[in-house]
């Protein structure tokens, strides 16, 4: 077996045409009893004449970021049992930012030295360099009615309480109102956690009452409201006012791992 490690760096196609020249050496060697293996960090940096050419390289393996279950297994293997209570914090952070095994190894080292995860992560060379995204949040009531909102990705782990703008779901809002804003909802980010059974990022329910926009409550006189405003007031009365909150969770994205949200 002949291994080319970090092929994309060693043979940088942007600097000169070295990948194409190297590939020409592989032509005609299939009859020989040799196994050629290459590794790369960025598949986009490989030559177009190498990708989708199973006649040249027959197999392709991608090593993805560890899932929440894999993170838990790894940390249980590496951590002393007295620090197991920090594992859920690591998993919750991995929802915010993908962690590779190099990151996990460093985190485990710090935790085994007695540091809390929140202390360790502030000093480790683990940072987010891509753009922060919005995370969709669902507030579900006991009667199964829902409200939606959005928060910034960085808020998932910053231990704050902040107001989140809330909106009616599309299936019940008046047709002329797109994503109608109806008020604010206090979100507590100090103890978000993973629901292992439902495989979702959850937020602790302190059961605060949403602060509905006064324009849609009975504090405003009906004659002051538009027809759409009156409809929203009726919707709030029927579905939301006085209802207890059942759960608050982040909406998973359409990705391979249900624990990933962006």
UniProtKB/TrEMBL annotation:
It comes from the Bacteria. InterPro entries: P-loop_NTPase. This is ATPase AAA-type core domain-containing protein. It comes from Anaerostipes hadrus.
């Amino acid at each position: 077996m002949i291994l080319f490690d970090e092929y994309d760096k060693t043979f940088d196609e942007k600097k000169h045409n070295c990948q194409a020249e190297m590939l020409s050496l592989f032509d005609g060697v299939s009859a020989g009893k040799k196994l050629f293996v290459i590794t790369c960090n960025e598949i986009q940096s490989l030559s177009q004449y190498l990708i989708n050419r199973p006649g040249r390289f027959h197999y392709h393996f991608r090593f993805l970021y560890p899932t929440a279950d894999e993170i838990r297994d790894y940390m249980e293997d590496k951590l002393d049992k007295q620090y197991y209570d920090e594992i859920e914090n690591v998993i919750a952070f991995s929802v915010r930012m993908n962690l590779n095994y190099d990151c996990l190894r460093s985190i485990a080292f710090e935790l085994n030295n007695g540091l809390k995860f929140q202390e360790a992560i502030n000093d480790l060379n683990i940072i987010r360099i891509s753009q922060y995204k919005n995370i969709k949040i669902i507030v579900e009531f006991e009667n199964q009615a829902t409200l939606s909102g959005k928060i910034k990705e960085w808020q998932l782990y910053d231990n704050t309480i902040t107001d989140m703008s809330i909106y009616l779901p599309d299936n019940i809002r008046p047709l002329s109102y797109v994503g109608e804003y109806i008020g604010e909802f206090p979100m507590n980010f100090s103890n978000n956690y993973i629901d292992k059974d439902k495989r979702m990022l959850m937020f602790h329910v302190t059961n605060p009452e949403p602060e509905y926009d006064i324009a849609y409550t009975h504090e405003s006189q009906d004659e002051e409201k538009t027809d759409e405003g009156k409809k929203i007031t009726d919707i709030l009365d029927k579905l939301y006012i006085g209802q207890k909150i059942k759960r608050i969770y982040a909406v998973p994205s359409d990705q391979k791992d249900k624990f990933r949200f962006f």
